[in-house]
Amino acid sequence: MEPMFTRPDAPFRPADEALAVSEFVRHARRVLEGAFPLGWISGEVANLTRAASGHLYFTLRDSAAQVRCVMYRSRAQLLPFRLEEGLQVDVRALTTLYEPRGEFQLQVEGIRQAGRGGLFEAFLRLKERLAAEGLFDEARKRPLPPMPRGIGIVTSTAGAALHDVLVALERRAPHLPVVIYPSPVQGADAGGRLAAAVAEAGARASADGIDVLLVCRGGGSLEDLWAFNDEQLVRAIVRSPIPVICGVGHETDFTLADFAADLRAATPTAAAELASAGLMLAAQRLSRHRDALRRLALRRVESAYETLDRARLRLRHPRERLARQRDRVAALAPRLDRAAALRIERLRARCGLLGQRLGHALPDPAAKRIVVERLGQALSASFDRRLTGSQRQLDALRAQLGQLNPDAVLARGYAIVRDEQGRVVRDAAGLMPGDLIDVQTRDAQIAARIETLSAKGSKPGPQHD
Question: Do 210 and 149 contact (CB within 8 A), yes or no?
Fold first, then answer.
């Protein structure tokens, strides 16, 4: 038989064996999540619902299709803008299946506004041109040193990003030296000064004892992060003799510096964690497992919240339910009255019929008395016959028992002979002259000694003392 599924991770099942709905939907969800990794999808927001739990439910659509989306509270509260219907957005989402309803949906991790005017168009044009030059190619990017000697940081000394990076490095790798190359991260000339700081760090890397460079700042709008889209900075990152980690903004923020860097970090703190991975490799693995477990638990909790939200939407007000039940009772009352009357009439008719049958079934005592007397006479006669037969049988058994009585045999002149051990002598083969024997007759017990022995029918021989 052919297998039901052909994927290598799917269980083998015969083609004619049925799957439970829950098992089928669970398998479909795994296939969807494995086939469509986390990515960006663009569309218009419609049918937006803000649940009491803090989750966002909406439809992402374009002119030809639409898909249901859910953004859980933990993600929704990090949005830098208010999501409204009709807004054109890019969502970073995981394709999944909501198992309780069998509903295909997107689980949204982040949202950014699409179509940000001339600035965004300039970003796209510059990105396309630099990508055509191969500046963003994955093949040219270098791996991070597993055990860095020191870490360089290009950022503003007045920003919170530097504090976050230093705290993370102090916690994870306090032994590593840190060199700061200060530069403004926002403003008209910030891009050029950031590029100069990256170039200075690369030139002094050997003397300063650093072999990995962090370029970072905190989150902000597209305008706030524009310095990190500067072409000079992109080219300086590409020319850097040491690997560069870019940690700009939040997880949903992307700049051209992110694409040019050897490694992109979601936040400045994440950049520090990636740079100090050497001695913390085992701890990072444990942290990843812990984070995965936390995300799984959060996802289950959020899925339960979603189920609760959907159930809450289906709940009816008690007043409405009572009104419906009252109408139903009013409709059923006449039917109940008719059914009760019909049942009473049927029971009355049945009682009359049973009364007639009872009258016909009354017993006749005189007839029954005659039957009882006849049965008594038959029983007495049967008892007498049985007693007479038993008496005859007892007499016959008594006569047979009397014939088998040894005393009766002795009375006819026979005797019982026993040897010295008291055993009955049945023949003379075991006896010798001089043996003592005991002879029992009907009325005496005789002790004797054998003088001679002779075979049956022969004459006794001479006696010897």
Answer: yes
Measured in residues, the chain has a length of 465
Q: Tokens 């957005």 correspond to what residue?
A: 89
User: Of the candidates 104, 30, 40, which has an alpha carbon nearest to the alpha carbon of residue 66?
Assistant: 104
Phi then psi for residue 216, to 5 deg, are: -150, 160
Say which residues have a Cβ less than 8 Å from residue 89's Cβ, sequence separation at least 6: 42, 43, 44, 45, 60, 83, 111, 112, 113, 114
Domain ranges of the chain: 36-114, 148-278, 409-449
d(CA 174, CA 194): 26
Cα separation, 184 vs 191, in Å, equals 8
pLDDT digits (tens, 9 = 90+) for 110-143: 888 775 545 666 777 888 999 999 999 999 999 9
CATH code that applies to domain 36-114: 2.40.50.140
Overall CATH class of domain 148-278: alpha beta
Distance CA 328, CA 318 (A): 15
DSSP states of 235-250 as a string? HHHHH-SS-EEEEESS
Assigned token pair, 323: 């009104």
Predicted TM-score (pTM) of this structure: 0.41
Give the mean pLDDT of the chain: 84
